[in-house]
Specification:
By secondary structure, the chain is of the alpha+beta class. It is built from 2 helices and 6 strands. Helices cover 16% and strands 26% of the residues. The longest helix is centred in the middle third of the chain and has 16 residues.
């Protein structure tokens, strides 16, 4: 069994885990934590699924709902899941269009983690009778990476 590198004094500390933390008031106010990847030499995909993501329509203030799927291939860092959950929850009171929410999340994670590869699928429920799905990735995925389907069907309404 490979020995795991311990977190040293120069590594970032996890600031939210194990504490009672209120939901951040905005995405800008949310703290993301990262931890060292214990397998930086391995090529693998990590997936986060948020089937109950919400934000607000910037025009009407009505809630918008999405099923988000975030896939990334870690390099040096992993995102700490509680901080990601709180970050995604901070969008509940945030007014932005579907495209802006989806791309803002991807941009922040890509900049924060510097992964080998990252993609996001934002499967938004209909607004005005039209579902809006938003997809983005950092570039071509690494060769030989197994990338499963995101598993979210396109919107079909009642049928």
């Amino acid at each position: 069994m490979a020995k795991r590198k311990s977190v040293g004094a120069t590594e970032p500390k996890v600031s939210l885990l194990g504490k009672e933390v209120p939901l951040p008031q905005s995405p800008e106010a949310a703290t993301l934590d990262r931890v060292p990847n214990p397998h930086p030499g391995k090529l693998y995909l990590a997936r986060f699924t948020a089937p109950e993501f919400t934000s607000l329509c910037p025009v009407t203030g009505q809630p918008d709902f999405a099923h988000l799927v975030i896939d990334y291939v870690p390099k040096r860092w992993l995102v700490e899941s509680k901080s990601l959950k709180l970050y995604l929850g901070s969008f509940r009171n945030h007014g932005a269009f579907h495209e802006d929410c989806t791309i803002a999340i991807a941009d922040r994670l890509a900049q924060f983690l510097s992964p080998r590869w990252l993609r996001i699928g934002g499967y938004w429920y209909p607004r005005g009778g039209i579902p809006i799905d938003v997809f983005w990735q950092t570039g071509r995925p690494p060769a030989d990476l197994w990338i499963p389907d995101q598993g979210v069907a396109t919107y079909r309404g009642r049928g």
